[in-house]
Amino acid sequence: MNGITDSVARVDAAFLYILGVSLALLVFVTVLMIYFTIRYSRSRNPEPSDIRGNWLLETIWTAIPTVLVMSMFYIGWQSYLGLREVPDGAIEIQVIGQQFSWVFVYPNDKVAEAELVVPQGNPIKLNISAEDVNHSLFIPAFRIKMDAVPGMDTYAWFFADEVGQYDVLCAEYCGVAHSEMTAILRIVPDAEYQAWLSED
């Protein structure tokens, strides 16, 4: 990817890290709960133990969650930065959400509806806006979900690494035909893209 941040890998890494920590905590707490239920049952421990004022325990159960939460924040922040830092030389395409379709406007003023065509091997910046109501541009394959709000311009970007066809959806309920507001992202070789771009 020529030094370009792999934002998809960063998002996936953040998700897997948080999932792994959550599963580990679930197993740890469940095992500990079962152990304590048996070990400190009334029959085995008729006189309850008093652990108030145990500074070591209080330090441990404060420090460990703090470290875990801060590590989740750090990896999440890194993935967020990967989604927001657009590489130099990105091809900019205007994306307009309207009831009930996505419209794509290219640098040469070519307009395409329901089909986003981009060249392989390039970073693509999508400048997103809405004409009427709230929409949300969702491209699952590239971990993009960005709201399109009337009167507010925003953006998202992805690296078009593999030739193929991918789904583009609206992830914000925008009216009765919301479910029909779909488009196709096609990543094609550069020569095919240039030929498509020059078509009327």
Question: How would the blueprint of this fold be written?
Answer:
Elements: H1 7-39, H2 55-84, E1 91-98, E2 101-105, E3 111-113, E4 115-119, E5 123-130, E6 135-139, E7 144-148, E8 154-159, E9 164-170, E10 182-188, H3 190-198
Parallel strand pairs: 1-5, 4-10
Antiparallel strand pairs: 1-2, 2-3, 5-8, 6-7, 6-9, 9-10
Question: Would you write up a description of this structure?
Answer:
The protein is an alpha+beta fold. It folds into two domains: 7-84, Helix Hairpins; 91-198, Immunoglobulin-like, CATH 2.60.40. The protein has helices spanning 7-39, 55-84, 190-198; strands at 91-98, 101-105, 111-113, 115-119, 123-130, 135-139, 144-148, 154-159, 164-170, 182-188. A hairpin with a 2-residue loop joins β1 and β2 (101-105). The longest helix has 33 residues, at 7-39. It starts with 6 loop residues before the first helix and ends with a helix.
Supply the key terms:
200 residues; alpha+beta; Helix Hairpins; Immunoglobulin-like; 2 domains; five-stranded mixed β-sheet; 3 helices
